[in-house]
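Aim 2 progress update. The chain analyzed this quarter is reproduced below.
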Amino acid sequence: MGLVPSIDFIAPPLALLLLVAAPAAGQVGPSPIDVEAAPRPVAVATRAATPVVVDGVLDEAAWRDAPVLSGFIQSRPDRGFPATFPTAARILYDDENLYVGVELTDPHPELLVIPSLEQDFESGNSDIFGITLDTFHDHRNAFMFLVNPKGAVKEAQDFDDSRQENAAWEGIFTVRTSIHDGGWTVEWAIPFTTLRFDPRRDPQEWGMNMMRRIRRLNEESYWAPLDQRDRIHKMSKAGTLRGLAGIRGGRDLIVKPYAVTSHAEGAATSAGGTGWSGDGGVDVKWGLTPRLTLDLTWRTDFSQVEVDRERVNLTRFSLFFPELRDFFTENSGVFSFGDITERNYRSGSSLSSFTLFHSRRIGLDAEGREVPIVGGGRLTGRAGGFEIGALEMQTRSALGLPEENFGVLRAKRTVAGVGDFGAILVNRQATDGSGTFNRTYGFEANLAPARYLRIDSYLAGVDDDATGTDWAGRVWAGWRDPFWDVSASIKQVGDDFVPKVGFVRRRGVREGYATVGVHPRPTSVAWLNEVNPFVEVDYVTDLDGRLLTRTANASVDVSYRDGGSFGVDLVEDFERLSADYAFRPDAVVPSGDYSFRSVSVSARSSAGRPVWGRVSVTAGGFYGGRRHTVTASGQWRVDYHLSFDFSAERNAVSLPGAADFAANVYGARATFAASTHLFTSAFVQYNALTEEVVTNARLDYVHAPLSDLFLVYTERRDRTGSFPPDRLLSLKITKAVAF
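Predicted structure tokens:
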């Protein structure tokens, strides 16, 4: 096998790519507007002359006097055309609140898609109305609020013009909805104390956009028009809200104490011992300035967090597990540094491959077991024209780890018309007097020299008491317009580049990546939304230039107007093993060079239906043998109260000289939402390779804004009965007090 992908492998998909490289003929009928060139709309908020009662009915006189904001434009499926059904929004305010009232016309309200009443529900599967507010009008950052027709909400903070999102952010507000013969209505009161803004500006001028999703039509429409590749938090393309005069924020201080009692059996707790135990702590959120927020935590507890998902690893490299703990996911985008992906650009890497700061290194050991956190703090926001972040955490000794201190400093500055520049410093140091430490630092430049062109780069170093110093760097460039998607990158990571508060998938390598693809949107086929053929090559060598890995992928992805999709992938792999590798004790692959091919076919039905699913089938070579993989997942929504999810992955592996084996993982979840304040779920996973069954059952009662009562049961059981099961039952209550 040569060092480059064979022509017979690349030629057919490349020919398809060139075939569709000419835009399809336009749709017959009224011409759509150019959503990229359309002027950004302006709205004026009206001060309410009479009180507003938030009850989901816009019957107060103040609503009748407010200007109507309408004319929503589709981003999908018919980009640039008017929305199918009218949406009429109004904006009011008084001294305490911003009010948003919306009438969403729908001639068939019985067909509204409402998947759940849960907070932070899966918004892509639902009819929704959403609004984003760029309260500093910097065209980059925003608060986002989404609601479905039954009043379930999802809120978030979005940063860096849609590059990063903090989905863990929660705000205090009141929203009510009602469904009626003509459609549905939203009435929202958002306190100004929930929204950070500069009180020195009077009147205020904010960025704003609004969206509506009609899920059964797979339709999204916006007040400030967007292309389907953009999202509501793309604030550089938002409209403007004016007229907010004489408003002010509050003290912006929230104190949130908690109390927890737990009963553990087996090795379910790392704090020492089994039986009953109790604890308590407190979190504090304080707005030091309109742009700076200080978060403090003491005796941090994460007993309410759901367990990690079981996964199959048939690679030679560590798996990346996402952060699930709220304290660390909040404002996490501020600290992101590494292979950050630009939205809509295919980049060949992500933070799950290379990041200097991965918060799971704090308070968890390598196996995901909890290491007690004494406390810490986080400062995030903007000051002096910089976006800044500072984090400090202290852990106790446990599980063979010493007591340690973790510190992070982050700064980034945006230069209009150029891009952004930033730096990060991460320190992990034992505080038991042993003197062990690991420090990483990095500098980045992310440029936007043209409308569709992005150039991202970083240079990072590490300094460790045991291994010394080493460095890593990357340069990536991408072009992504409504039709073309082209990018390339080069990355190098030293042999001793080990950031112990980060994650690096491979060290001692140089990696080159390139891709080219197109996104035609044929209008002559009624059921078709977009076709995306592309080719990509990933080429990895050691630091002496010797080839280690080469992956060539030729793919075609097709999306349908109803939200379904279909894809075919042809993959050609080359792997060089410098030593024998054991996937399991009785399945060892000898050192040597291996070339193999595989083909994958995947399909997904529309998530707007009560029963939907996705399936993928892969077959091909695998280190001199064969591998067949089938993955499936889906959901049955009985109604907005009850749903069932399932997932399954089956890997059948055959290797020369070894017994055939299967690596399978199965999971199922039942979710019941009694109301928008009371949720329960039960999650069961079975890992056939380790023969373990993991069960996690949770009850969450939101008894007041930002205040919860959790009852959580977790069990890990060896199906063979060789070990006693680990069990942990926790009852936790939190109460947020705002000042």
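Residues 325-518 form one domain. The chain has three domains: 1-31+525-676, 34-244, 325-518. These observations will guide the mutagenesis experiments scheduled for the next reporting period.
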